[in-house]
Every structure is written in structure tokens, then in C-alpha cells.
User: What shape does this take?
Amino acid sequence: MAIPVAAGVLVVLLVWLAGPGLLGISNDDLGAPVTAEITKPAPCDRPDAVETVKFTVAGKTHVGTLNGCGHGQGERVDVGVPAELPDQGTVTVRAADTSAGASDARRPLGLALLVFACFSGGMYVRLVLRTPARPKPAANVS
Assistant: This one.
């Protein structure tokens, strides 16, 4: 009985120490939100639609690509810009209200589900070990 409990506690402790990345939660920096103007819209009939945007950071105009579609020419959208911008070339930006990963509220829920799974596995092992083996009935020989 002590071995399944210790194994469950060890798994939960290792997941807790591994950090949020193990539960599929990333702490990616989305960058500063900036208002950008769509310079080249993309139709939504292609699966990998990319639009070209123009935005200004610190008085300098930059060109970027936005994975998205359906915006109109000259439409303004909020985008997340990386902290370090190159002097030349295009920058990959993403919509400011989206993020890759999950919210921080999912980590405690994922950890609670892991604890429940470890508890359930331990209870199953306990039931298997407690159940006495049944003898097989003797075969009738006539």
C-alpha cells in the first residue's frame, strides 16, 4: 500500500517541480500591444492565410506579417509585437488578444486532475492487492 502512495506523491511532486511547461502551459511573452494597419489583406479561402501589416514603434515604421484573414485594406488591428525588433525586414506579429498556450488558471486544474488520477490508480492497486485469489473448480472427470 505504501508503494502506490509513494509513487503517486512522487509523480505529483515531479510535475510540480517541472513547472507549467509540462502541463502544456507556456509563459510566452506576447510583446507589447500595438495598433497596426492592414496593408495587404488575405482572403480566408486558403488554410495558411497571412496578411501584411504596418505599425509604428518608437517613431519607426515596421512591416510585419500576421497569421490571419478577413480584414480589409487599411483596417486597424491590435497586434503583439516582439520586444526586440530588427532594423530591417518583416516581423512576425500575432493578434494581441490571442496567445499560444493556456491561461494560468489551467495549471492548478491540471495538477488537481493529476492528483485525482494518481489517487484513482493507487485505489485500484489497493483493490487488486486486497482481493483474495479464487481457487479454480476441479474439472469433472467421468
In short: The chain is about 30% helix and 25% strand.
